[in-house]
Amino acid sequence: MSVIPLSQPDITEHEVRAVVDALRSGRLSMGPRLARFEEMVAGRCERRHGVAVSCGTAGLHLVLRALDIGPGDEVVTTTFSFIASANCIMYVGAKPVLVDIDPRSLNVDPHKVEAAITNRTKAIIAVEVFGSTTHMDRLAQIAGAREIPLIEDCCEALGGRHRGRPAGSFGRTGVFGFYPNKQITTGEGGMIVTDDDQLADACRIMRNQGRVDLPEADNDQSSNLQAGWLNHTCLGYNYRLSELACALGIAQMERLDELLEARRRVAMAYMQRLMDCQDLILPNVDPACAPDELSWFAFVVRLTDQYTHVERDRIITGMRRHEIGAANYFPCIHLQSFYQEQFGFRSGDLPVAESVSQRTIALPFYNQMDDMAVELVVQTLKLMLQRENLLKRDS
């Protein structure tokens, strides 16, 4: 393990006590903590419904099912994201239409989205990359004008806002993820948020093996056995989130503002130390957002165009040798071997995203980082950059 890892969850005794209390309650699934966690996340997003699920990917899958998207349909999304943003489209038999990105925000380019819409397009999945909410209002306008749903993949953006509106409130529905590197964690987990009553009900049924959520007493003693616990009304999945995970999520949501502020502090420490580095492009901060509206998921810098992906990879390898966690976020989805085989994508198809993805470096980023840790990461990165420049000069 690195001396300074790439990420690390922020777990305190508050979370430990909450999980222990859930264990001692004797109710480990589909209990009161589920409802409370859903209420807290939905409230933060100014939505009527929250539907907790086993992960963000499961949430995206259920939303597409609830919208009756399937074979013969197309869904427009970005190529610059974690692969789940496109895989979920494949799960329902639809075709992912991958488009290029805006080089500043790294979110999908609204003009490219508009150009990609056809009469087969049934939805847009807009990813809020690294927590940025930029363009979500514009994408909502495009979706509304074409009368197709906008699905907000806000797995990386909990707590963020854009022009006063919270992440998760722009689309027909939004989906969050709670993996350990996110703003809050439930270990594994996700949340669908929406104002659509029918969509929420459909997702609740499908997450629970195609059956309606029933009170605990009805699970064993339903007066109408045909409508009871073992009655399945549709094809469903085991996408439930346990009471233990929800207890952890509640405790983290109670600390959300504190967690977000800690991430802002680390991000600003990086920005101050790297702003004079001519070899790097720092994360773009949307001028339309106030500082406290940003929700930092990761701190990802980009090498300037004079560097190649080979040089970027050497820099990452060098940092890891010095026990500094670093990674390449994200490889383009359309250049993943499976997508190339399925759809015939080739290098050069989406040039902006390809250029960005070949030069990104995700630096260690987590709440507990102090100034000494940030300084060590920055000095190691600058050392690796100097090494590359010496290699260039001597070649």
Describe this structure in words.
By secondary structure, the chain is α/β, with parallel strands linked by helices. It folds into 2 domains: 13-255, Type I PLP-dependent aspartate aminotransferase-like (Major domain) (Aspartate Aminotransferase, domain 2), CATH 3.40.640.10; 257-394, Alpha-Beta Complex (Aspartate Aminotransferase, domain 1). It is 41% helix and 13% strand. It is built from 14 helices and 12 strands. The chain has a 7-stranded mixed sheet, sandwiched between helices. A 3-stranded antiparallel sheet has the order 10-11-12, covered by helices on one side. A two-stranded antiparallel sheet has the order 6-7. The chain is globular, with a radius of gyration of 22 Å. The model has no long low-confidence stretch (mean pLDDT 95).
Uncertain runs are none
Chain-averaged pLDDT: 95
| CATH arch. level architecture of the largest domain | 3-Layer(aba) Sandwich
| Total number of helices | 14
* Terminal-residue CA separation: 34 Å
Number of domains: 2
**CATH homolog superfamily of the largest domain:** Type I PLP-dependent aspartate aminotransferase-like (Major domain)
Sheet with the most strands, sense and barrel status: 7 strands, mixed
Number of β-strand runs: 12
Classify the secondary structure makeup into a structural class. alpha/beta
Any idea what the shape is? Answer: globular
Strand order of the largest sheet: 1-9-8-5-4-2-3
